[in-house]
Design goal:
Strand content: under 5%
Oligomer: single chain
Radius of gyration: 18 Å
Distance between the termini: 34 Å
Number of helices: 5
Length: 151
């Protein structure tokens, strides 16, 4: 019988970034689904709201979806790296990662609604403000929760 020695490998910053990318994708999917359902309940077309995310503002729903997921993944990696930095300084502050995620999502919404989208006159401004804010809150909660599970 062979004795197996397992060595616990320390998680790297790269591992953390990948966890954040994946959590961001999940959060982006949930956010997109929420916005599509909200649009449908308001009498709009679910795929039309995804077209608002098209960077060329051509209204292509597939391009908008892919762009949204790419940005969601990058922001997810940002939250994961932020949480790792906070955990390195004071581990007890990251026990409620979902709460950090909620604050992060609302911060992203504030920056998007107040600065970025108004500067470029984006078609995302067609989404009602409360829906866009709630979608960002939902995104942050999902990403934070996923990152809390991964640790």
């Amino acid at each position: 019988m062979t004795k197996l020695n397992l060595v616990r490998r320390e998680r790297t910053w790269g591992d953390t970034a990948v966890d954040g990318l994946l959590a961001g994708l999940v959060g982006g999917l949930v956010m997109g689904l929420f916005l599509a359902v909200a649009s449908w309940l308001n009498g709009g077309l679910p795929l039309a709201v995804l077209g608002y995310f098209d960077p060329a503002q051509a209204g292509g729903w597939l391009t908008g979806l892919l762009a949204h997921l790419a940005v969601s993944a990058i922001y997810g990696a940002g939250l994961a790296l932020l949480l790792r930095g906070v955990r390195w300084i004071r581990p007890s502050l990251t026990k409620l990662a979902w709460l950090w995620g909620a604050a992060y999502g609302l911060l992203l919404w504030g920056l998007a609604a107040g600065v970025v989208l108004t500067a470029v006159d984006s078609s995302l401004l067609k989404i009602p403000t409360w829906e866009f804010g709630l979608a960002h809150l939902l995104y942050g909660l999902v990403v934070g929760y996923r990152l809390q599970i991964v640790k």
